[in-house]
Amino acid sequence: MNRHAIQRLGFGLLGFVALVVVIPIVLIIALIVVRGAGAISWEFLTTMPYDGMKAGGIFPAIVGTLLLTMGTAVVSIPIGVGGAIYLSEYAKDTWLTRAIRLALVNLSGVPSVVYGLFGLGLFVLFLRMGTSILAGSLTLAIMTLPVIISTSEEALRAVPMEFRTVSASLGGTRWQGIRHVVLPQATSGIITGILLGLLRAGGETAPILFTVAAFYLPKLPTSPLDPVMALPYHLYVVSTQVPGMPPQMQYGTALVLLVLVLSMNVVSSLIRSYFRRRRQW
């Protein structure tokens, strides 16, 4: 068998594996769309639930998910990007920085339920925040930080050293070079890391189960110390804890969550494409 035949065989196997992965995902999405589209209406998206959540809408859950995602972003983005800048541009290659990078990789693979228990012990009980938006946002922020720091650091390290050298040769300080040269060139990679972390946070159930999510709360929060409903936990509740729940509402909730996550993916792709076109290398 010559190398061209081996190459065709390899491409064929890769295509087959891709189909094996993609087809079930497409079928699941199609099932959710077909069974959930009938539940989608203006009332479903903008009204409060009633009758034990068997009727009405999911507006509090949508608002709660958006609030948690924004709270996570406010906490995790400055710390994550700042940590990545320090590790990439300022920290020396010592055993401590290598240990930090190894810890970040390991923390990225920790199950979300562990972060939930950590948030319960630290924020809810020890710091007495109770089950609240603040406790949930801080827990989700800690969960997303390893992803944001690791991907942002890789994006910064990918910027050629010549950019930094030219900036220094023109009399710029190290921070000026980072601020005006390195960061703009690494923006697409940094945004990718941020959105990967936020997408994970927006779809998690276990961390918010321990720190913020309410079983049934047909009203909007008025304070960061209030609990909220959230789409991932609400989907779990209506699917397993509420007897007699119409299947259409279950699939409708899943469809809304799916559309929210996919919309964030589309927006992130557009932002990445915009900054990649402006990249100078």
Tell me about this structure.
The protein starts with a helix and ends with a helix. It has a two-stranded antiparallel ribbon. It is an all-alpha fold and 281 residues long. The protein has helices spanning 3-36, 42-46, 59-90, 95-108, 112-126, 133-158, 161-169, 174-203, 206-211, 231-240, 247-278, and strands spanning 49-50, 55-56. The chain is built from 11 helices and 2 strands, in the order H-H-E-E-H-H-H-H-H-H-H-H-H. It has one domain (70-278): MetI-like (MetI-like fold, Orthogonal Bundle), CATH 1.10.3720.10. Helix content is 76%, strand content 1%. Helix 1 crosses helix 11 (247-278), helix 3 packs parallel to helix 6 and helix 6 (133-158) packs across helix 8 (174-203).
Helix/strand-derived category reads: mainly alpha
Going by CATH, the homologous superfamily would be: MetI-like
What is the typical, i.e. mean, pLDDT?
88
Outline:
globular
Strand order of the largest sheet: 1-2
Figure out the total of helices: 11
| Low-confidence region ranges | none
Kindly, what is the distance between the CA atoms of the first and last residues, rounded to a whole number of angstroms? 40 Å
Number of E-state strands:
2
- In CATH, the topology is named MetI-like fold
Tell me what portion of residues adopts beta-strand conformation.
under 5%
Taking the sheet with the most strands, its summary is: 2 strands, antiparallel
For the record, the count of structural domains works out to 1
Question: H/E order of the elements?
Answer: HHEEHHHHHHHHH
Tell me the name of the CATH class.
Mainly Alpha
- Helical fraction equals over 70%
- CA radius of gyration is 22 Å
What's the architecture in CATH terms? Orthogonal Bundle
